[in-house]
Amino acid sequence: MKSNGLVSIGDYTKEDILRILDLAAQFEKNPNTKLLEGKVIATLFFEPSTRTRLSFETAVNRLGGRVIGFSDAATSSSSKGETLKDTIKMVSNYVDLIVMRHPVEGAARYASEVASVPVINAGDGANQHPTQTMLDLYSIKKTQGRLDNLIISMVGDLKYGRTVHSLLMAMRYFNPTYHFVSPPELRIPEQYKLFCDENKISYDELEDINSVLPVSDILYMTRVQQERFTDLIEYEKVRNTYTLRNSMLDVTKDNLRILHPLPRITEIADDVDENPKAYYFEQARNGVFARQAVICSTLGLV
Amino acid sequence: MKASHTELIVRALENGTVIDHIPADKLFKVVWLLHLDNLPNQITIGNNLESKKIICKGIIKISDKFFEHQELDKIALIAPTAKINIIKNYEVVEKIDLSLPNEVTEILQCVNPMCITNKENGITTRFHIVDKAKGTVKCHYCERIINQEDLILK
Fold first, then answer.
1. In whole angstroms, how far apart are CA A177 and each of A98, A139, A187, A252, B145?
2. Concatenated DSSP letters of A208-260
3. A101 labelled catalytic
């Protein structure tokens, strides 16, 4: 009987989340163990994602496991027209666990149903990227000492930002208050506002970042992508409005930390990097520990 | 004597199914999704009739036809107020209240063109019903929430 893997952040209960975060803390203290010795893990990246793939592969290597896989669909048999089902069935024969990134939404759920080994979703199109959410939660807990009752401001592309949507949903257990700061064309979709209403989460929508700066515990920045705009002049305007600069941080609380799923372009100015409130590079480092925790938990090794 | 007139229509069926209390604007959608246009059976369709429950209702009577649960689920998705009467030997032998199950398989197609079910052949579609009253569903695979008016029935 295979365990279920992790396809969607919704697969995890509150208890699962807290258990994984505790595990991640243990891996941070002691990242190099032999828990995966003798195991082979596949990293199947049907679309390139250097950061996520390296993070997963580092996690496996530090646990003493081995990795097979590909980093681009062009080098896999799907370029010859093989179905996802056949690729997954084939790889299932070789490995103990599949980590998969795929551009098509729902691909991870489908793969988990046809695979004979557990599947961890490393991103399926615009849908889910649950290990990103786990590392975001870990970063929040680590920097704030808690997950409960925090004021979280989400800034930038709240319409297409998949990490925003998953984090917003995962935090429902912890009584957050949200400020959604975005240009009008990239507002948080209706379904997530409905989600907040149903879960009695208070939120507001703003266009100006300045009013949320003094009250926030977490500033979750996202990339505003040029391809979301038809009018390039509008894009330039929005891009400048939503750039966080070091001088803007003077009014913020001492415990404020700035998160960003990376890569960033211009939404955080370089001069913020040296500010102790900048946390995005440590956040990426936390990704290794969070993924170690998810992998070991999925394989029932901890 | 409007009531007895409606009764008379129902009674006129010897064996078969009566789908009653269909909202008038959904009647032809029901006809279409049950593929009644290709059915050789005797069919009577009435629309814009007066009803106590809904102002304008439609009714469909089909001789010698009894629907499978999947077909009933289709009706429940787009016309949840409809009532199904099973007629045998001129008598109503069973009344079925349509109720949506917690999930439906096969009968819907995902509206998301980037969903795996629209990209790879041979996947059985599966949707979780998130709001039975509104008919809102969620794709099991891509997790897209779909409102009733946007549903694509196969």
1. 36, 17, 17, 17, 24
2. -STTTTTT-SEEEE----GGG-S-HHHHHHHHHHT-B-GGGGGGS-TT-EEE-
3. yes
SS3 B120: coil
Count CB-CB contacts under 10 A for residue A150: 19
Q: How far apart are CA A77 and CA A29, in angstroms?
A: 40
Q: Give CA–CA dist A210/A237, Å, rounded.
A: 16
* Helix or strand run (H / E) with residue B116: helix B116-119
Q: For residue A263, is the peptide bond before it cis, meaning its omega torsion is within 30 degrees of 0?
A: yes
Helices A162-170 and A130-144, interaxial angle, to 10°?
60
What are A63-98's pLDDT values in tens digits? 999 999 999 888 777 777 889 999 999 999 999 999
Q: Residue B53 gets which letter from DSSP? A: S
Instruction: Supply angle C-alpha A29, A34, A35, rounded to 5.
Output: 85
For chain B, count helices (H), then strands (E): 4, 11
* Residue in B117, B120, B145 nearest the CB of A85: B120
CA B118 vs. chain centroid, Å, equals: 24
Please write the tens of the pLDDT for every residue from B103-137: 999 889 999 999 999 999 999 999 999 988 888 99
Report the C-alpha gap between A71 and A61 in whole angstroms: 17
User: What is the reported pLDDT for B66?
Assistant: 95
Mutation target vs A (from B121, B143, B146; most A CBs, 10 A cutoff): B143
The ipTM is 0.89
